[in-house]
């Protein structure tokens, strides 16, 4: 008697990506795509309905984002096996997802090579973090992280606001903003303010605006 197939739920707001995963899995009868969701709210609902063995979760989606959806699912189902599925390799995003309960991290650019191996590893109870992601996670844990206030300030700086405008928005002194900016640049090893914003975006500390 053959083993039961691995039951998979895919959460991503791009239909073509979901179709691409389904196409790859056609050649692998040991993995069964049992459901799809297009946003975080649907993901929580579909997970409760289907109780899949493995869930692949996009991070950036409208409404409830991937990290929040992971946290919500894990709060109700502590044994949920969820891996992040994302375009971004920013270490802050990876760390936030792991802290929320993710057991794996898959870049969309790696799907053709690693999708099946990742699903099989996760279903077997293992964690799955490709080497570049594992290294970034170690760096994120080892380095000083930005405080919530520093994240607020770099977010406003990314919108093009100067120190005086940031101070007015946050109801703090301009000198306080300058002090935080110095701390941010030290922690991020940035040459200047623009470089700090660039690093924060690259590492996923803040999100970009379209």
TrEMBL record:
Modified residues annotated as 4-aspartylphosphate in this record: 58
GO molecular function terms noted in the UniProt entry: DNA binding
Domain Response regulatory, residue spans: 7-123
SMART domains (alphabetical): HTH_LUXR, REC
Pfam family, one: GerE
Keywords: DNA-binding, Phosphoprotein
Gene3D superfamilies found in the cross-reference section: 3.40.50.2300
The organism's place on the tree of life at top rank: Bacteria
Domain HTH luxR-type stretches: 139-204
Database matches in InterPro entries: CheY-like_superfamily, NreC/VraR/RcsB-like_REC, Sig_transdc_resp-reg_C-effctor, Sig_transdc_resp-reg_receiver, Tscrpt_reg_LuxR_C, WalR-like
One of the GO biological process terms: phosphorelay signal transduction system
Protein known as: Two component transcriptional regulator, LuxR family
Source organism of this protein record: Phytopseudomonas argentinensis
